[in-house]
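Protocol step 6 of 9: fold each sequence in the batch and record its structure tokens directly after the sequence line. For illustration, a two-sequence batch is reproduced in full.

Sequence one:
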Amino acid sequence: MKKIVLSMALAAWAATATSMMAQAAPQLSPATAQAEQATAPPAPKPAEVNPFPPVDPKNFTAASPTAAEVDSFLKAIWGYDENRIWSVAAVLKTPAPGVEKVVVFVADKLQPGKGRQTVFFITPDGKHAISDAVIDFGAKPFEANRQLLQARADGPALGAAGKDLELVEFVDLQDPRSRQAQDTMTNLASDFPQARIVVQPLPITEHNPFAMRAALYGSCVRSAKGDAAYFKFQQAVFDKQTSLTIADAEKTLTAAATAAGADGKSVAACADTPAAKAQVEASLKLAADVNADSTPTLAINGRLISLTTGLPYETLRKIIAFEATQDGIPVHLQPLLTTLK
């Protein structure tokens, strides 16, 4: 699959879909030498009033990616939002050999007259675009991540036994944002009973010096007493998170292990073993392989969503339902079953 790096994190695009700046259509400079090779773009997305300027075939001078390929990618990214509309405005050659420029106009049906443009550049190998985040490009841009997670996400789990709809949460037990995200995860477990929810440790040790030790304890609690005990341990650590200090970290973690039903001293000894370290390091490697580099991050059938961006819970539910449908899993959103905190 081709790789693409967009001009802002795609999760942030989803969270700010309704805050687009009003902007007149820019003048695009066609590449004259290859105008005869132009690829015809698809028709603009239907809307009550088409907010986009007419598409000029002269602005499609690069053979790849085609407008249809860009369109299918954007459907996979934005299709959960029935109010988002866009038009692939240009796929242009540039003065740099082999580098191509893609221009997309984006708008919202609920904000007539407002919109913006997004630009990214395809590299000569046709597999990457230049910006600050990386995602697979194509009609199913999350499939590679989904397959990796189905094969290797082996952390504590709850919910459904099957992996058709899999929500993988990357957690740092010393991270206050991971603690705050647990209300969201509890609500998701209630609202999507058909989902399998997996927790993978991702200790960010440069910011949280006791995160690795906490992850090791969690691995040992699970090994000794199972998944349900792990979730009790995790909650106990979150409840006493401010006690993860030089003076009190070991005592706090041992008490949390005991509260989960494990023998605290045995868990402390286990945390020093190569086997416990290998389990946590495997989870760190998995996070790196799917480009999860912060906590808390939620992978929805491979699609990474940061739970720190202020994404509304109802939007998160729509994304989950959309990704499930894309993967052939029927999900019908019901009125909210939970009282959100």
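Sequence two, same batch, same settings:
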Amino acid sequence: MPTEVTMPQLGESTYEGTIGKWLKQPGDPVERFEPLVEIITDKVNVEMPSPFGGTLAKILVTEGTTVATGTPIAVMETADAAPAGERQPEAPPAAAAGGKTAAVAERRPAGPSADGERARLSPVVRRLAEEHGLSLEEVASLQGSGAGGRVTKDDVLKHLEQRKSPSPATVRPSPARVPVRPSPAAAPSADGSGDQLVKLTPLRRSIAQRMAQSKRDIPHAYGVIEADVTNLIRWREAHKEEWRSREGVNITLTAFFLKAAVEALKAFPTVNAAWAEDGILVRKAVNIGVGIALDEGLIVAVVKNADQKNLVGVAKDLDALGRRAREGKLTLEDVQGGTFTITNPGVFGSIWSMPIVVPGQAAILATDAAVKRPVVRDDAIAIRDIMHLGLSFDHRVFDGATAVQFLNRIKTKLEGFAGGDAALLDF
């Protein structure tokens, strides 16, 4: 029977995704959980596993197109029959042009409508309309290029460009029904100044939107403290090769930071939370997102159930996630479900950072570079490795006192590391 495959939920506060590449073509057999399509999320390209086993019958959304979560993107012929009364209707035959199906074309009524049509606008499109003073009726009346004629953010941006055009002669034609976004090539300068406009990739555009959403919707507050990590750094330098030989992976400072943060989250569970309109959602799971810098942008991969893993387990997870990120092989599971995030700009030399909270979370920890500094210890001057721990947090969820106590809990854990097998087991 024909069964629709829809755009999956890509994480908290994420409402759409871009089709990067179809890994199967119509007529191909597909096993359940076999990679079906590459989806560009707000942080990374991921391979979506097929939710069904069967044959890929139709592709409804072509590569390069952005659609909202829940939008049908393909039709599969599956052997499983639906329960009585729930059988889905047969999909109409494909339309002759553009690879679109009649089923998709029929989902958009001819011409603009009222409340029903406005309800089809994604949150991203609605926010973009608000930012530029466009009415929802005006946006809903645009010719949509998304699946089912849905108006996408690209359609709104093109509409804004047309409104800014100095004369009718420069107005661009309506976009194609299913556009493919341009590659990030630099457009030549138009005014002879030598400036170049670098086109946004879907990843860069998504990062920009999520960060703007965070700064617009979340009242950020900040706390920063210093931590003396001399003992920790000395132990790591002395034992990292032995560790790699024994465990098969590198032991990074991030693994220690993550484990210390987990302990602090247990002590202050409101940091492992999120704002909701009807209250504060305190998460049971402790899933730590870790920022990974790639050439095309920063991604956040998630160490799941970090509170249930020892230092070795965390180190192996970080190694595996980093490797898959660099190879472009992260899955949806790898980037979903984060409850708290750690970013490590210290690897690039940063000594003081104020990161932006990830939407759907309450806080993000920045771990900056450890720098040798003269400090007072027991009324004497000593050279120690000092780093800053910075917390950006949603002030609606908790206050500065909780933030600083949380940071001090991490500081105590890091500064108390004495080395040795017992200390590793306890970390």
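Proceed to step 7 once all outputs are recorded. Observation for sequence two: DSSP finds twelve helices and 19 strands in the chain.
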